[in-house]
Specification:
The complex is a heterodimer of chains A (112) and B (109). Chain A is built from no helices and eleven strands. Chain A is mainly beta and 112 residues long. Chain A starts with a strand and ends with a strand. Chain A has strands at 4-7, 10-13, 19-25, 31-38, 42-49, 56-57, 64-68, 74-78, 87-94, 102-103, 107-111. By secondary structure, chain B is an all-beta fold. Chain B is 0% helix and 60% strand. Chain B is built from no helices and eleven strands. The relative contact order of chain B is 0.34. The model of chain B has no long low-confidence stretch (mean pLDDT 94). At the A-B interface, strand 5 and strand 10 of A face strand 4, strand 5 and strand 9 of B.
Chain lengths: 112, 109
Amino acid sequence: NAGVTQTPKFQVLKTGQSMTLQCAQDMNHNSMYWYRQDPGMGLRLIYYSASEGTTDKGEVPNGYNVSRLNKREFSLRLESAAPSQTSVYFCASAVSDTGELFFGEGSRLTVL
Amino acid sequence: EDQVTQSPEALRLQEGESSSLNCSYTVSGLRGLFWYRQDPGKGPEFLFTLYSAGEEKEKERLKATLTKKESFLHITAPKPEDSATYLCAVEKSGSRLTFGEGTQLTVNP
């Protein structure tokens, strides 16, 4: 049982490059989330999807876009990466819109 | 503005030395308070949900309690495998989780 799978695990980008972080869950969960984790800042919500076909902005959405491709998959896109987007990104899912989240192992992104 | 503050930032214990971690919050309309454990290089793992003041939850050596202003995570006779960062998060009606910065716990053998 894989749970929440994120790819890639590590990525280095140059300023201005674009990339997409992929996330898939196999628990038949309705809600999916993207967080970023930075030292001294805690986990901050970027975007979430309460159900298939819907997406909403979180606390720090600027510079990101998301796609809820189907019930299993929720991707995060950086159109023009900036050094301030250097972070660890976590995807999470939940049965419904509650705080009991299941997290992936993270994607470590460095923007030079 | 909703705030979640965890203390201490870091805690070192000897194996068997019981202690508590604190999570204080200022949230109107609390819907739930959540505790997670995060190991280095991994995603957070859900531990407990507390919904109302006076509620307690237990799991092995961990016990979480909740008052109207704070939550405690009590660790009884910890073992080295309890070493991790413990995160607290609050959820209020109509909003998503707000996480604290975590307490990094180290248990020495």
